[in-house]
Every structure is written in C-alpha cells, then in structure tokens.
Amino acid sequence: MLGEKYFQLDMSYWGRSRRLVIQILCIWALVAYGLPALVMETNKMNYLGFPLGYYNCAQVIPLFYGALLLIFNHVQEGIEADQMDGKPMVEAASSAALNAVLMKVYVAYTGGFVSFVLFLGFLEAVGVPHQAIGILFVIFTLGMYAAIGIASRTSKSDDFYVAGRNVPPIFNGMATAADWMSGASFVGMAGTLYALGYDGLAYITGWTGGYVLVSTVIAPYLRRFGSFTVPEFIASRYQGTVQLPGGKIVEVSGVARFLATIVLLSCSFTYLTAQVFSTGVIVSRFIGIQFEVAVFSGLIGVLFCSLLGGMRAVTYTQVAQYVILIIAYTVPAICMSTTQDDGFNKNNPVEFLVYGGTLQAIALREKEMVLLGLASKVTPYLEPKWRRVDFFALTFCLMVGTASLPHVLMRYFTTPSVRSARRSVTWSLGFILVLYMTAPAYAAFAKLEVYTNVIGQPLSVLPQWVFTYGKIGLTSVCGKAVTSVNEAVEACAQATGGDYLLKLKDLKISKDAMVIATPEIAGLPYTIAGLVSAGGLAASLSTADGLLLAISNALSHDIYFRLIDDKASIQKRLLISRVLLVVIALMAAGTAASKPADILSMVAWAFSLAASGNFPALVLGIWWRRANAQGAIAGIICGWGLTLTYLLGTVYGGWELWGGISNVAAAVFGLPVGFAANIIVSLLTAPPPDNVLAMVDSLRDFKVTGEDLTAEELEDIKEKEEALARTQGLQVSNTGEATAEATAEVTAAEASI
C-alpha cells in the first residue's frame, strides 16, 4: 500500500545511522537552547545554593552532552554489531598493547610531576626565592616537552602526519583535550566568567556542545576516508571539471583544496597567535622578562616537539601537557573550595558542587558595595546582560566552529579505526569537562576574594599581586598600571594612601590575568601559583603544537606536494614542512608581540572563520550526495568571505555591528550564506562524477578495518604481511595497524631518511 511505502523505515546501516544522528541532534538542540532560554525563570529556583538557571548552563548542560555521546556510541556500536551478525568487535592486539604501555608510562610520569611540585613546595618552605621557583617550573616543563619531542622523533610520513594511525582512544582523547584547552580555556575562560558572569557561560555551552557535532556528523567519516588533512578530504570529495570560455576543460578540485587551505590558514593562524600571546603573559610573569622576549622564548618547547616528531611527538607531548594543565587548574580550585563555609558546604573539596554559596555571597556583596558608596551601580553577576539572541548566536558559532577546526579534526585521523574515532571524541569531551566544570567555580572564588578583600580597602594595604601584575600591564588602579602604593596614591590623586578606600571602578583586572593571579589573590602558597603557570604554559603550547602542524602540513602537503610538485620525495616534503614550522612560529610570535586583542576574542574569531569556511563543505560533502565542486567553491568564497569582511570591518574599519551581533559571533552571518551558496550552485550545475558519488557511498557504508577484526583474523593477516615482506625484501613496521594497508606506506625512501 502507498502508506506502507512512505512509512517503511530504512533498516540499512546508513538508514539506521542517519536516523540515530537526527534523533541525537534534536535532543542536543532542545537542551542546548531550551534551558538557556528559560534562565530568568529557572534562576528563581535554587539547588545547593545555586540559582538553577546558572547551574544548568554551567554544569548540567555540559554533563548532558557527555551522557548523550555515551548513548550515541552505545547505540551506534549496536548497529555496527548487527552488520557483523552479532560477532563482537575486538580491539586490535597492537592497539591494546600500546594502550597498556602508555598507561604505565603516564602513571609514572604523573607521579614524577607531583613529586616535583612537592619538592618545590619544600624549597619555598625553606626560603628559596619565589622567582627561582617560577623559573624552575617553566624550565622543567619546557625541558620535558623537548625531551618527549626528541624521544618521539620520526622520519616516516604516516608517523609525522597522523602518528601512525594507532593512538588509543583514551590517549587521543587526552591529547585532543590538551590541544583544545588552549590559553583561551586555561588562561581566558575563568577571566571571562569573572568579567561577564552568566553571559560568559555561552563559551562553555558552545565549546562543549560542539563535540556532539564532531562525533555524530563529521569525525567518523573523515577517519573512514583516511586523509592526512582536512583540505585533502575536501579536494577528494569535490572533484569535477569546468569548461572555460575558450573550450578548455580544467579540473577544479585544486581550487577547492586551495580555498580550504586558505580557510585553514586564516583560522589556525589567528588561533595560534592567541596561544603565543598567552605563553608570553605566563613566561613574562614568572621569569620576569619583557613580554616581547617571553613570546619568542616560549616557542622553543613548541618547535622541539613539532620539528622532530610531527604528529607523533605532538600527540605524546600533549598527553603529558594535559596531565600538567589539569592538575594545575584543579588544585587551586580545590584549595579554595576547602576554605568555604557558606551554610551549604563546609570544607568540601568538590569545587563544582561548592560555589553555590559563593555565588550568593557575591550577590549580597554587590548590594553592599552600592550601599557603602563603593560602587554607583553593579551589574548582577548571575543575571543575563546580553540579549538572548546574542547568547544563542555566540553559542551556535562556537559549536559549529568546534566541529570545523582543522587542528581538532586532524586528531581523529590518528586513531586505529572509525569506532576508535567516535570513542576518542567522547574521551575528549570527558577530559575537557574536568576543566570546564571547574572554571565557573574558579571565577566565583576569585570574584568574592576581590570584592571582599580588595574593594573597600585603603590604598596603603592593597595586596602585592595588584602591583606584581601591574608591572606587566594586566592590572590597573584608577586607570594606571601601578607597581607600588605610592603610584596607586598618585593615580587616584589622593594625599595619603590611608584616606582613600578603593572603589569598584578604580580596579581593572585583565581577563587574561585572572587564572594565573587567583592563587595569589586567594593567598595560596607561591608554589601553587607556579603550578598554575606551568599548567597555563602546557595549555598554550599544546594547542600551538597542533596549530603549527595543521598549518605546516597543509602548506607542505596540500599546496606544495599536491599543487606544485607532486613528484617531491618524502625527504623533501618533510624538510619543507619543518622549515614552514619555524617560519610560521616566528610570524605568530611577531604578531602576538603587538598585543592585538584579548585571548578569548582572538580565539572566537578563529571559530567563526572555521565555521563559515569549513562546516558547509564538510557537512554537505558527507551528508548530501548532490553537493559538487562548484557549489563548495561558491560556499567557501561567499560564507568565509562574508565572515572575514564583517570581522575586519567591525574590528578595524569602524563599522557598526549588524543587528547588534558581536564580531565574535561573525559566523552567524557567513554560515547560512555558505550553505545557501553551496546548495544553490550545486543544483544549478552538473552533479558530481560517478567516482565521487561512489566515494560518498563508501563513507556511509560499514567497513571492517583494523580494530574491528578478531584476534585470529589479525594474526592471520600479520603472518601474510610478514611473508610478503620477506619475499619483497621490505621491513614491516610492528607498531602500526595490523592491516596490509599499513605496509604499503613503508617505503625504501622512508627508511633512508
């Protein structure tokens, strides 16, 4: 019957997978936008001292994303199991063995780092100068990263570009989290929440929500394709020919590759500059050198890892950096949490459950400061100040940008299989949530400390940290970066320091200083402050590593090798990639030294550029067979071009904001234009060639690869590989996947580098 035809469900692998993705995304969107839309109403209710609306955005929604990915993975793996007639999919023996080895190595590494921190605490107790401790932290961490880079050096192309495609999901998750939690997250997130209050939670809900898109819509399909870079996927997907007016027929995939590389460069270089900037802030503070010098000195650790070992070295360095940054971020928050006694909690170390009473104390202090004349008006910390459309626009751009960033997506090229890629995304979000669940507590504790122990105090008793960060321009009193009480008195035009009580408007703290200054604001030991500096350095350098690789790999592989010299040897390609690493790093350092903007703003620009340039081409390339090369080229030019124009016009050209939408959410204009241009031009031009359609179909089919084989099948393949290697005089790598495909990458040229 007609009804049965229309309502019969597609029970194929692709039909069931597509239906699952749609269901997951509907639930995701409902929670991501439904709960924030009700914030004014739900803030009237309390949970553990928290206004419920604030708590939903700060804690509930990010945790819900993690639970949603667990459900998605479970159901999707069930669909795949059905394709194997119930036969279980076991992990490849080589991957399991590598996982066990890495677990032992990083447990020992973590113990060693904790011992080092305790040793520095002992040095502080016996009177070693603070600056010496700060220098030891910076030197020790940079030295470790350089040592890992040297130990992981490689001359194989698959190791350099994709870490041999054998990184276990849990460690790839840690590396992705470190790659992701840049200076923007570590240094800038809590500072933004400190300054914006509730509105700053748009960054948390947006960035964590983006991983749902990564896992369901993009990452598994890119891993199944098996490319080295995002531009390579776009070039392969968008093949086609165009007849020029003179009758000449040209292939346009090179144009798509070139435009995708331009998008990658624009968003990655902006993001990289932000990381180098935050590195300069940290190194200048804790070593005591000039900011401009600190910016260049911080690149040493980055280049050691990237130059010698490429993605392989960067991956294992980023795992080590995650350990440091998460310890550094959570320890001060836990220390401050245990001092809270607010009627809801007493000495509770679980910081993300404790700060509800702190939020209430902030609200009371805001009213008190107005009554005491310390502030004429205070914007409530817990209430939205932005229009809802502004909050939603930024959230949307950050979500889509997360799913479009090349340096994040390329991390999922390193896993052994498609299933590992999905699991890796879930691990990534889990590790990221540890920091993002802590950031609101961090900001709240710092806010209350400043409101209570700094605002309303005489100038003569201002804490030392105000002057310390004034030296590097991150704090100011009465409009001037002061370095002593006398300078503060002069800035506020008072006869004596004791006569004047500091008002709220008099003190300005840079958002980029908040995290590294909070241990000193809270009166914690200097070793904790040094630990935070080491964590911030790890966060910035780990992301800089990934960004440098993304940029240099795109230029050497997608531009030089694919478009200029397709006969270049592996030695030459790797040499060019390494030279480009140095050049790009120096350019980023030079740009960062000019202090172009605050860290979080620069990062938000990168997300909008990536979203408008990459997302339409990636999503339509996977999910719509009819998308063609002409449509992709039009979509990138229109979407990315409009976003870049709006950014440049509003930041540097003096343009008025369109509809009041901030330039950090610029993709809200470019993204729909990019989709529209891609779809319209694709429909008006010829469909993709048959080989491209076959490739799209292969992305949607279930494949049994590597990790999905049984142990017996893996052993059989391994024996055949070894026999083939003996007959052909080749050496087979024992560290990669156990498939015949891996041996094809091992060439005599690679062995001779």
Q: Give the strand order, joined by hyphens, for the main sheet.
A: 1-2
The largest pleated sheet is described as: 2 strands, antiparallel
Q: Which CATH C-level class of the largest domain is it?
A: Mainly Alpha
Structural class: mainly alpha
Instruction: Provide the number of structural domains.
Output: 3
Total E-strand runs = 6
CA gyration radius, whole angstroms:
27 Å
How much of the residues is beta strand, in percent?
A: under 5%
What does this structure look like?
This protein has 753 residues and is mostly helical. The chain folds into 3 domains: 536 residues, Sodium/glucose cotransporter, CATH 1.20.1730; 46 residues, no CATH class; 41 residues, no CATH class. The chain contains 32 helices and 6 strands. The chain has a two-stranded antiparallel ribbon with strand order 1-2. Strands 3-4 form a two-stranded antiparallel sheet. Strand 1 and strand 2 form a beta hairpin. Helix 5 packs antiparallel against helix 6, helix 14 packs across helix 20 and helix 14 crosses helix 24.
List the helices and strands and how they pair.
Blueprint: H1 2-7, H2 13-37, H3 39-42, E1 46-47, E2 50-51, H4 52-83, H5 93-125, H6 130-151, H7 157-162, H8 169-180, H9 183-196, H10 201-225, H11 230-237, E3 241-243, E4 249-251, H12 253-287, H13 291-297, H14 299-337, H15 351-354, H16 356-371, H17 388-402, H18 406-409, H19 418-436, H20 439-453, H21 464-470, E5 475-477, H22 485-491, E6 507-509, H23 514-521, H24 526-564, H25 570-593, H26 599-623, H27 629-651, H28 667-684, H29 690-700, H30 711-728, H31 740-744, H32 748-751
Antiparallel strand pairs: 1-2, 3-4, 5-6
Helix pairs in contact: 2-4, 2-10, 4-10, 4-19, 5-6, 5-14, 5-24, 6-14, 6-24, 8-14, 8-19, 8-24, 9-20, 9-24, 10-17, 10-19, 11-12, 12-13, 12-24, 12-25, 12-26, 12-27, 13-25, 14-20, 14-24, 14-25, 16-20, 17-26, 20-23, 23-24, 24-25, 26-27, 26-28, 27-28
